[in-house]
Write a structure and sequence with these properties.
Helix content: over 70%
Order of helices and strands: HHHHHHHHHHHHHH
Number of domains: 2
Number of strands: 0
Radius of gyration: 24 Å
């Protein structure tokens, strides 16, 4: 297990470097001059030149990338060209919002997907399986922005049960945090729950037909033990892969949901930076997101090898 973890960590370093390099190159290829975007449309040529010097835009691109990468290893992600605030401080302030949304959405995805997948996998072909399959298909096809809009209309405008916008930190009030995060998390969780249910159903149907599951049932073990102890452990392996993939999708898709519910997290921060051509902020967001996704996938890999001894290296 330790060898697997070390190997995955060693392969993650060049991956993160490649992601940051790709982001930097894309920023250089985008049209427009960041100096003009920061200085404003009414700035003089002298002011634009001063901004270019302040941002070190006169240096060659490779020099700027290496300088930024060296500062990032020391925890200095630069200063936002638009707000003149340290990027690391802004990320520290906004990261809990996006993390709360991602954790809540992932929790709801598991809470929705696992029971539905088990119910389908244990009764394939039944009326319950067909009804839940239709529900899962709708969940897979429903876009997050449409779900968010419908939730706001039904639960905030019509019924006034939940607030339509804003965020309250968990430390300030757990109850208000839950009320504010429930709708955006549910908007992000429906697709993930449908994916988990579909994968778990397909895997469980196959596992339940294997000889060792039939032998366990023939020995007189209760259905709860057969399913819970033997079948679900093998059937959960594809679900672990889906969970690892969902982490990146939750972070990438947070922009739309954060804008609808006015959650000032990493998604809205990155969107504002792109509109302002503030590429230092974009690089900081990409780096933090890449590290989180890679670390999560590393954890999923470890759990996968723990749950599946056959996949462990000899």
């Amino acid at each position: 297990m330790l060898r697997v973890a070390v190997g995955r960590m060693a392969s993650a370093v060049p991956l993160i470097l490649l992601i940051t390099l790709g982001t930097f190159v894309l920023g250089q290829l985008m049209p427009g001059d960041p100096a003009y975007a920061v200085a404003g449309p009414d700035a003089s040529s002298e002011e634009v030149a001063q901004v270019r010097r302040d941002l070190n835009l006169e240096d060659p691109p490779p020099v700027r990338y290496v300088r930024w990468l060296g500062d990032a290893f020391r925890g200095d992600l630069g200063v936002s060209a638009a707000t003149r605030r340290p990027v690391a401080d802004e990320l520290g302030r906004r990261w809990p919002v996006t993390a709360s949304l991602g954790i809540a959405a992932l929790t709801l995805s598991l809470a929705l997907g696992i029971p539905i997948g088990i119910a389908q996998g244990l009764r394939p072909g039944s009326w319950l399986d067909r009804a839940l399959l239709a529900l899962v298909s709708v969940g897979l096809a429903a876009p997050a922005f449409w779900l968010a809009t419908m939730l706001v209309y039904l639960l905030a405008v019509e019924r006034r049960w939940l607030p339509a916008r804003g965020y309250v930190p968990f430390g300030d009030s757990p109850d208000e945090w839950a009320r504010h995060i429930l709708m955006p998390a549910l908007a992000r969780a429906v697709v993930g729950g449908a994916e988990i249910a579909r994968q778990l159903r397909a895997s469980l149907v196959g596992v339940m037909q294997q000889d060792h599951i039939r032998a366990a049932a023939a020995r007189g073990l209760s259905p709860r033990v057969v399913v819970g102890k033997h079948a679900l452990r093998n059937a959960s392996l594809p679900v672990l892969t889906i969970v690892g993939l969902r982490i990146g999708q939750l972070l990438a898709g947070a922009v739309v949901v954060e804008e609808i519910f006015e959650l000032h997290g990493l998604g809205s921060y990155a969107l504002d930076a792109i509109l302002n051509q503030d590429f230092v902020v974009v690089q900081g967001v990409v780096l933090v997101t890449a590290v989180v996704v890679v670390a999560t996938n590393l954890l999923v890999d470890i759990l996968y090898y723990w749950a599946n001894p056959k996949a462990r290296p000899a």
